[in-house]
Amino acid sequence: MTVLQEIEDFIPCNTPQLWVENALANPELLLIDHANCEKKAASTALNLMYRYVDNFDLLNKMSRLAREELRHFEQVIAIMKRRNIEYRQITASRYAVKLRDAVRPNDPDKLVDILIVGAIIEARSCERFARIATFLDEELEKFYLSLLKSEGRHFKDYLALAESIASQQEVSDRLAMFLAIEKKLILSPDSEFRFHSGPCE
User: Fold this and answer.
1) How far apart are CA 53 and CA 55, in angstroms?
2) Domains of the chain with bracketed CATH
């Protein structure tokens, strides 16, 4: 089974075609928010490293993930620079915020939920790279397809860490709850296009 097949089996729904059309109509926003997503992913990994210093498996996986996400960030802003796209401040989408709203407040439950949310975000990112790549120009298509392997590994790393902390039943139950939230966010309309937004009319 390929990484993409694993991702598609994991996520609760495919990205709507309207989102793809939104992305093609907003190429600058796509890259700006993609850069933001890579930066936030690195920040999340680093925050976990600072908070959970006693978990060596987490420290190793998050250190590698942070380096890779920052490398992706550098690649995105290099593409933006070549295309004369200004890197400006834009508002974040509701996606990650709404997922994290359901995270339990106290550890170890909190860590389990954060890791599950991380797995879902990485999986959706991977699916969206694959979904849009073939519609883009040659440079972006090659770049987005190149991200599938690492993003797919990040998804599995987050999930494996959650499964190392909590029981299989707990992870399964929490995953089902978060995936239901994620499906609503992906399929319901958004007012502004973002990399993880729902479709915009």
Assistant:
1) 6
2) 21-187 (1.20.1260.10)
